[in-house]
Amino acid sequence: MIRQKSFENNMPTLYLVPTPIGNLSEFSERAIQVLKDVDYIAAEDTRNTIKLLNHFEIHTPMISHHEHNTNVAIPKIINMLKDGHNVALVSDAGYPAISDPGAELVKAVIDEGYNVVPISGCNAALDALVVSGITPQPFVFYGFLAHDDKTKKKELEANKNITMTTIYYEAPHRIKKTLSLMLQIFGDRNIALCRELTKKHEEIIRGHISEILDIVNELKGEMVVVVEGGSKIEDEVVFEQSITEHVNEYIAQGMSTKDAIKEVAKIRKVGKNEVYAEYHKK
């Protein structure tokens, strides 16, 4: 067990500082002061962060910490803490360690016995959740799905029976495929698609997946998709007939073998290949 009394010890500290996801006026006074007070800022992309620091006249030295240099950056930051320095971790937008680099660093700092302190601030997932009109709790934050369609489909299949509201992040060039797969796998559920949160062109689109698919080609900007929970898993239906007998029943009614296999697969909620293999096995 580790008990961290953040403000009752003199241990060096890693601060997790969320940065605005769009509107700079949402950057809190405490977050700005922490960035001014620490010895170093570890940034996901120093080129982006320097714009933020310049805007708020923050002159703290920066180092790079992103998903491709953790093997170098994490030991470097640990050594800074060992030398008595305080470090702030920031991502390009929103909370570090939430679909952004940081989780590995947090674990490493905890293992070394130093403080890890959160600063309240911007979070696109929670912003979207509370304005979605969908039951806000309990909820599951899933983040980004896989980029390739095959893996994405497997992830959604695994999620279809989650009864809690689920939050996903998605990029505009992948949103149409993602919503199409959700419609195919989840059914036509209620969702809220929130884009450009806190920015000038912020938009909250609430409705069924099929409705939003009709306009998705005109949408731009980073997106959060809030999906209502699925129904509880239905009790498994027990069929008295074997798969072969079931297929033969439809063939006897005039269906082709192909259509009979497709119908049986639909009724039994199994793959067509599974029915085909069972029907044609020797």
From TrEMBL:
<keyword id="KW-0808">Transferase</keyword>
<protein>
    <recommendedName>
        <fullName>Ribosomal RNA small subunit methyltransferase I</fullName>
        <ecNumber>2.1.1.198</ecNumber>
    </recommendedName>
</protein>
<dbReference type="InterPro" id="IPR014777">
    <property type="entry name" value="4pyrrole_Mease_sub1"/>
</dbReference>
<dbReference type="GO" id="GO:0005737">
    <property type="term" value="C:cytoplasm"/>
</dbReference>
<comment type="similarity">
    <text>Belongs to the methyltransferase superfamily. RsmI family.</text>
</comment>
<dbReference type="InterPro" id="IPR008189">
    <property type="entry name" value="rRNA_ssu_MeTfrase_I"/>
</dbReference>
<dbReference type="InterPro" id="IPR014776">
    <property type="entry name" value="4pyrrole_Mease_sub2"/>
</dbReference>
<keyword id="KW-0698">rRNA processing</keyword>
<dbReference type="InterPro" id="IPR035996">
    <property type="entry name" value="4pyrrol_Methylase_sf"/>
</dbReference>
<dbReference type="InterPro" id="IPR018063">
    <property type="entry name" value="SAM_MeTrfase_RsmI_CS"/>
</dbReference>
<keyword id="KW-0949">S-adenosyl-L-methionine</keyword>
<comment type="function">
    <text>Catalyzes the 2'-O-methylation of the ribose of cytidine 1402 (C1402) in 16S rRNA.</text>
</comment>
<keyword id="KW-0489">Methyltransferase</keyword>
<keyword id="KW-0963">Cytoplasm</keyword>
<feature type="domain" description="Tetrapyrrole methylase">
    <location>
        <begin position="13"/>
        <end position="212"/>
    </location>
</feature>
<dbReference type="Pfam" id="PF00590">
    <property type="entry name" value="TP_methylase"/>
</dbReference>
<dbReference type="InterPro" id="IPR000878">
    <property type="entry name" value="4pyrrol_Mease"/>
</dbReference>
<dbReference type="GO" id="GO:0070677">
    <property type="term" value="F:rRNA (cytosine-2'-O-)-methyltransferase activity"/>
</dbReference>
